[in-house]
Amino acid sequence: MKRLGILISGRGSNFEAIADSIAAGELEASIAVVVGNRPEARGLETARQRGFNAVCIPSKGLDREVYDRMLLAELRQHGVELVCLAGFMRLLSATFIREYPNRILNIHPSLLPAFPGLDAQRQALEHGVKITGCTVHFVDEYLDAGPIIIQTPVPVMDGDTVETLSARILREEHRIYSEAIRIVLGGDYRIEGRRVVLG
Ligand code: GRF
Predict the structure, then answer these.
(1) Catalytic status, residue 78
(2) Is the CB of 86 under 6 A from ligand 1?
(3) Which of 36, 57, 137, 162 has the CB geometry, 3.0–4.6 Å to 44, for a possible disulfide?
(4) Domains in the chain and their CATH numbers?
(5) Is 74 exposed, middle or buried (0-12, 13-18, 19+ CB in 10 A)?
(6) Coil, helix or strand for 143?
(7) What pLDDT is stored for residue 141 in this prediction?
(8) Whose CA is nearest to atom 8 of ligand 1?
C-alpha cells in the first residue's frame, strides 16, 4: 500500500475527499501523514479527529530551503512515497522537488494554464470565461506549472459569485484528485515532455 503525505494550509476538504475514497475502497493507498503549514488550518483538526497523524510545521518567517528541509524530514519519517498538495499555499524549492521526482501532485481550481496563482475562481469570473474547471498536475519549481494529469471542465453560470462557482468546481476537485492519485500509483502512464500519456 503506497503511503501518501498530504500537505494543506486551510480547510482540507480535498484531503477529506482522498480519505473518503480510501475508506470506500476506491483508492488503494494509505495516508501516512497530513502536514499543515498554518496552525489554524482547519484540516489539521479534521485529520486528528479522523485518527490520522496530523502535524503542524509553521512556515511563517522561515526561509524556503530551511522550511522544506523540515518538511522533507517529516515526510521521510513517515515513509511518504507520494506527496499530495491539497490547498497548500507555498511554492516548493528545487531541493524538495528533487527528493520526490514526479512524485508530487497539486490540485488547482482552473483549467491550467489559465488563471494560475491565487483566487483562480475570481480570476475566471472577472475574465468572463464561460467554462473553467480544475486540474491535477505534477509539481515542478514553478507555480501551477507541471505536466497535467487530469482536467475537468465546469460551466460558469450567469449570476455566479466566487462562492457558487468555487463550490461547483470543488465538487469536481474532490472527484478528480483521487482519480489522478490512482493513475499515478497505478503507474500506467508516461511523461513525454509536458504531456502525460495514459495507458
Ligand atoms: C482548492 O480549491 C484547491 O484547488 C486550491 O485550494 C483549495 C483548497 O481547498 N488549491 P481545501 O483546503 O482542499 O478544502
Answers:
(1) no
(2) yes
(3) 36
(4) 1-100 (3.40.50.170), 106-199 (3.40.50.170)
(5) middle
(6) coil
(7) 86
(8) 87
